[in-house]
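Sanity check

After download, print the first record. It should look like this:
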Amino acid sequence: MNWPHVHLMLNHAPVLGVLLALALLLIGMFRDRSSLKEAAFITLVLTGALAAIVYYTGDAAGELLGACRRSAKLTSSPTAPWRYMLWPEP
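Expected structure tokens:
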């Protein structure tokens, strides 16, 4: 497993975490339950930590993919980098 794999696995966690925190906060506000409001705050803190991890793994993944693009013989097609990375020529 390398940085692009970690980045792709965790990339959706911050978006879903913010949606979950929003749902917890709204339910906590309508039902006037402080435990749900606290759970929303904890979810936002954890989502922020995951967002930082996604950001730094994205930098490492971008550097790795940039090295792959530079080493491949590319055409002018915008899909050429992905084609060469997924299906290398024999």
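If your output differs, re-run the checksum step. Summary of this record's structure: The CA atoms of residues 77 and 83 lie 10 Å apart.
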